[in-house]
Structures are given as structure tokens and as C-alpha cells.
Amino acid sequence: MLPTPKKYFVTAASSEGRSKLTAFDNALLKARIGNVNLLRVSSILPPGCQHDPDLVLPPGSLVPTAYGYIVSDVPGEVISACVGVGINSSDTFGVIMEFSGKCSKEEAEQAITNMVKEAFETRGMELKEIKIASTEHKVEKIGCALAAVPLWY
Amino acid sequence: MLPTPKKYFVTAASSEGRSKLTAFDNALLKARIGNVNLLRVSSILPPGCQHDPDLVLPPGSLVPTAYGYIVSDVPGEVISACVGVGINSSDTFGVIMEFSGKCSKEEAEQAITNMVKEAFETRGMELKEIKIASTEHKVEKIGCALAAVPLWY
Amino acid sequence: MLPTPKKYFVTAASSEGRSKLTAFDNALLKARIGNVNLLRVSSILPPGCQHDPDLVLPPGSLVPTAYGYIVSDVPGEVISACVGVGINSSDTFGVIMEFSGKCSKEEAEQAITNMVKEAFETRGMELKEIKIASTEHKVEKIGCALAAVPLWY
């Protein structure tokens, strides 16, 4: 099997770019995950996976990552992205949720909080804590708001 | 290289949720793949990969999975998702197709059957069998129909 | 951690299909990546990763791949896809960009060139070379244009 990740951090950033993909690329760079190969996952915090905000990811490595983002080319539009990691009160797995939309950062955080709570309720698990990262951006020309939970080893 | 999967199963389920992402999450749970990290793949059944309907996936593990899904927030709308695994008459690889749409389960299954047949024709391979999983859902508030082929070890 | 890829090639192809997914499947086959499981990545060329245009990928294997594609069912519409790999003048990592749209191959290549240049500028890196693969297709019934950078070992 593929090795199960053991560490994670949460991150969020916004950026402008000259194109939609480079706006995304620039937001990844600001979020400290621009020089790796993101493998998008949906979205469980593995049992025992430890929060490590100082993780340094080797350039070009394959990094399983839960993320949400939104790109807009409508000047003045407000966009936001948020991720939340729901930590279990017992020592088993957690749940990761991501959200992006044309809304404020506060609305994105509220949406994430509700989603994580629902995910824990559905699983009959007790929620100890939610780690959140969020970002809000007012588009100048072409902007991207991105939030991510990179999983690592 | 990354290890090539050796086992698989087919699954499909529908669910409601309070948001689009939790509707998806709830459908994953009902399909028995809600507590793992799906890595979306497109979509070949590796040579020798065995059907194992009783597979139990460890929580948080990285699971290469071909899947299709549709989320709708239009009450009354009928949505369906279907996957099909085309098995080769000789002992080489097979082909996985996924489909989702605003249609009945029967239409989704027919679409999948046609797609698998076309994929085999194109490759000049003989089709022995198609394993199908499908689901249909009438949306109440926010619903998701999902079909998946998890690949495992 | 997951093993970091060591080889790559660039490829692009277009095809018709009887459905949108089989048009995509047929384009993958013409691009020589139709019989593997693509794991979509975004999108860095790992340090030391070597160009190998003759790579043969084992059927069913998991292949980290940066790709862009567009599917259209509008007869007569011109669609294009392009990838570009920006190679660094020093021996560190490069950047991969992908693009697809309703435009000519030349426009797609120009977009990719601009995106790779921006990605290098942002990172303060010097661009030695861009390897490009692109394809243009005039849709008959249902067509797909696809460009990809498979990463391998």
C-alpha cells in the first residue's frame, strides 16, 4: 500500500497572477506549497497524524493534500477559501473539510465549522478541536484564494 | 515507482447532507469509503487485480480510486452515478469507466456499458464481463450520488 | 514518503469519442498514457528529473501526471491543449504548466510560454528551456484535446 501520512499542517493564502493558473501557483507559493507536486485527497486525518507547522517539503515531492481554492477574474469580487481539520477527542482519525466561495473569510470559516461538526456527528465521533486556516482576497485583475492541509511523513 | 494495486471492489451510494461537501462525505460513508483518503485515478484495472468485495480499508490510508459523482441542491431532481469495470477475456488489464448525471440509474448503467464497450473496442480487447455499481437519488435538499472503484493492496 | 519521480516526457493528442469520457480515453491512448492510472499532480519538475521520450509505462501503474484537457460536443469548435515544462538553468527543480481552451494551438502555446515565464520570474529562477507539447482539434461530434507531462521512475 501507499504509506499513510504522519504529519500535517494547515495553510491559506491569496494572490494575484497574470493568468488563472499562475494566480493559483502564486497562492500555492505564498502558502508554502508551491514547489511540490500536490496530490489532491479527500479528506481524512490519519490516526496519529501530528500537527507540525514547521514542516519543510522537499521540492518536487509528491504531497497528499486536501485543498480548496477559487479563482476569479472579476475585479472587486471578494473570494475566500478555508480548510478545517477536526481533531477527535479519542486518539483515532480526524476529518478534513475544505471550502471556497465568493464570500468573506468569516462566512467561509463558519461554513467549515458547520461541515466539520456535521462530519463528526455523522460518524458518532466527539470533536475536540478544529484547526482552521483561511484567507480572503479582493480581486484586482485575476486572483486566487487557496486553503490547504498538506499531509506528510 | 508507486506500488500497483492488487485488489478492488465496486461500490455506489447516495446521501443527503447539510452542504454539498458533506452530502458527498455522507455518500462516501455509505459506500464504505468515507474514512480514507481517496486519490482519484483515471482509470485502468491493473493486470491481475482481484475483485474483493469484503475489503476493509484502514482509516486515513491513501486509496487510489476511480469515481464519479454528482451533487444537486434542486429538490426533486433525480441524480445517478455509475461505475463499470470491464474485465478482459485474456489475463491482462481491464478498463474502468465512471458516469454521473441528472438521469435514472438505468440510463447511467446503459451509458457505462456503452463506454466500457467502446474502450475495449478501441483497444482491440475482448470483453468478458462488466462489474457495475450504480445508485439513483431523488434530491430532498442537498443530495449526492456517488459510484466508485477503490483499488487496494 | 512517496517516491519522487525521476523521469518524464511530454505528450499531447486529440481524439473523437462516442461520449465525453471515451473521447478523453481515446486522447489518452493516442498520447501513449491510456492504459495507466493517472494521478493528477500540480506541477513541479523534481530536481534531477530526466527527460525520457521513450518511456514505456506498465499497464495499470499509478503515474503522477500533470495534464490539461478540454472536451467539447460542439461540432466545428476548435479546441487546444498544451503543456510546458520550464527547465532551470541551475540544476534544481523546474515548473510545469498546463493549459486548455477554445483556441488555436498557437494561442495555447503562447499562453503556456507566458505562464512558465511568470512562474520562473516569481520564483527568481532563470529559465533555460521550455519543452512544449500541444494539440489542436476541430470537433466533429465529441472531441477531446489533451496535453500531459507524465512523471515516472
Automatic annotation (TrEMBL), chains A, B, C:
Enzyme class: lyase
Keyword Lyase part of the UniProt annotation: yes
Keyword Repeat recorded: no
GO molecular function: arginine decarboxylase activity
Organism superkingdom: Bacteria
NCBIfam families assigned: pyruvoyl-dependent arginine decarboxylase
UniProt keywords, alphabetically: Decarboxylase, Lyase, Pyruvate
Family per record: Belongs to the pyruvoyl-dependent arginine decarboxylase family.
Catalysis: reaction(s): L-arginine + H(+) = agmatine + CO2
GO biological process, one term: L-arginine catabolic process
InterPro entries named in the record: Pyr-dep_his/arg-deCO2ase (IPR016104), Pyr-dep_his/arg-deCO2ase_sand (IPR016105), Pyruvoyl-dep_arg_deCO2ase (IPR002724)
Cross-referenced SUPFAM superfamilies: Pyruvoyl-dependent histidine and arginine decarboxylases
Species of provenance: Desulforamulus putei DSM 12395
Cofactor (UniProt): pyruvate
Enzyme Commission number(s): 4.1.1.19
Protein name (database record): Pyruvoyl-dependent arginine decarboxylase AaxB
Gene3D superfamilies the UniProt entry points to: 3.30.60.30, Pyruvoyl-Dependent Histidine Decarboxylase, subunit B (3.50.20.10)
